[in-house]
Amino acid sequence: MLNLHLMRIFYTVVQEGSFSGAATVLHISQPAVSQGVRELESQLGLTLVDRIQSRKSQHGQKIQLTAGGSAVFDHARGIFALEKAAVDDIEARVGAHIGNLTLGASTTVAGYWLPAAMAGFARRYPGIKVNVRVANTRVISEWLLDCQLDLAIVEGDVEDPRIESRHWRNEGLLLVSGAEWAQGEGVLERMNSGCWIQREEGSGTRSVCDRLLASLGVLPKTTLQIASNEGIARCVTNGMGFALLPRVVVSELLELERLQEVVLPGAEHLSRSLCELRFRDRPLSPSAQAFADILHNKA
Predict the structure, then answer these.
(1) Helix, strand, or coil here: 22?
(2) Of the N and C termini of the chain, which has fewer Cβ atoms inside 10 Å?
(3) 193 Rama class: left (phi>0) / alpha (psi -120 to 50) / beta
(4) Domain boundaries, the chain
């Protein structure tokens, strides 16, 4: 029979990246954590932690798992996801919609699209405390799989079979630059020779940007990476080059003529999907389902 207490110790070690971190979270001694992992390995007949590699990378890096350890961790993640779902469901049903809801959102979604849905949810369910965690799409997906989120809304689909992606809405994108880069002939040449300011790897905006550059045959001489659409927009207004940004981010700057739209064949009518993400192995709690219904105008 699987010992869930030992499985929780191992799961926490991996989550925290160290035995000492797990000891702090579980309020037990580090030797007790180490012993718990060894007992689990003995019961399963598997080595879960590569202790030689973990000692080599102990300075600020996560422990190293064996192939068996990675497989056991995936099972543990599913087990404790179901446990959390059960606890959330019970808590939400006691006292009629009293509890917590943790949402994940990519940066543009959190800043521009999510507030209206949150306001509607708060009016209908004032007893539920909502927390929003913001990061790029890749990080949000990892948080969802780690059961740190109840629901997520991000830019673009996620290609992970463990995550269910549901289309929410489309968001327009614009290719923009300062006037000195956009005017006259030879825009493509200037895009190659100039600076392209873009989001970090893992961002939904970055994925669309990379596909656009490939379709236009553009290889920018210089690129600048900034993990903020607003920061990118300010750089472009200061004449630093080109960027692909959500329309909602740049609309006011376009009206003030601090930015110009660059119109090119193949770059018109650009958009991307905003999607709601769910962890397939974790049923939605009542509060998460209620938020999803508001998001899709079903409530």
Answers:
(1) helix
(2) N
(3) alpha
(4) 4-74, 88-169+274-295, 171-270
In sequence order, what E strands does 9-162 have? 99-105, 128-134, 151-155
How far apart CA 145 and CA 19 sit, in angstroms, is: 21
Q: Would you tell me which CATH number, out of the four given (3.30.457.10, 1.10.10.10, 3.10.410.10, 3.40.190.10), belongs to the domain 171-270?
A: 3.40.190.10
Choices 2.40.50.40, 3.40.50.2300, 3.40.470.10, 1.10.10.10: CATH for 4-74: 1.10.10.10
Residue labelled with tokens 């105008």: 297
Given the DSSP bridges, would you call strands 151-155 and 270-279 parallel, antiparallel or unpaired? Answer: antiparallel
Listed in sequence order, the residues at least 6 apart from 161 whose beta carbon sits closer than 8 Å to its beta carbon are 280
The single-letter DSSP state of residue 49 is: B
Task: Please tell me whether the overall predicted TM-score, pTM, comes out greater than 0.85 for this model.
Answer: no
